[in-house]
C-alpha cells in the first residue's frame, strides 16, 4: 500500500502564500503522476495541478500563474507553492499519486484564505 501525508495547510490572508507538501511512502515502485486536488464545501473535488514523472505539468485555469507544482522523484515528494491566494482558494487540498494504474489519496489538509 502507498501512504500519502500532506502538510503545510493553514490560515492565511488574501494575497499571502502557502507551500503544501506531499510525501509518499510504503510500496513505492514507480509513480507516474503526482497531483494536487481540492474540494470546497458543497463543490466537487477538482484538479489543481499535476506533474508527471518526466516533469510535465498541468494546471487548472484558476491556478495558472499563481501556483507552481514540483516534485522530487528520489524523495517521492510533491510540493505546491501557492501565491497570491484568494478567498476562493479556500478548500481541503488533497494529494494524489498514480502508480501501476492505481490511484492513492492523502487525507487532505485545510487551506483557509481570509478576506
What does this structure look like?
Helices cover 0% and strands 60% of the residues. It has no helices and eleven strands. Strand 7 and strand 8 form a beta hairpin. It is globular and about 45 Å long. The termini are far apart. The mean pLDDT is 97.
Portion in strands: over 45%
- Largest sheet data: 7 strands, mixed
What is the rounded distance between the termini?
40 Å
What is the 3D form? globular
Proportion of helical residues = under 10%
SSE blueprint and pairings:
Blueprint: E1 2-7, E2 10-13, E3 18-26, E4 31-39, E5 46-52, E6 57-59, E7 67-72, E8 77-82, E9 91-99, E10 102-105, E11 109-114
Parallel strand pairs: 2-11
Antiparallel strand pairs: 1-3, 3-8, 4-5, 4-9, 5-6, 7-8, 9-10, 9-11
What is shown here, in short?
It contains no helices and eleven strands. With 115 residues, it is mostly beta strands.
List keywords for this structure.
single chain, 115 residues, mainly beta, seven-stranded mixed beta sheet, four-stranded antiparallel beta sheet, globular
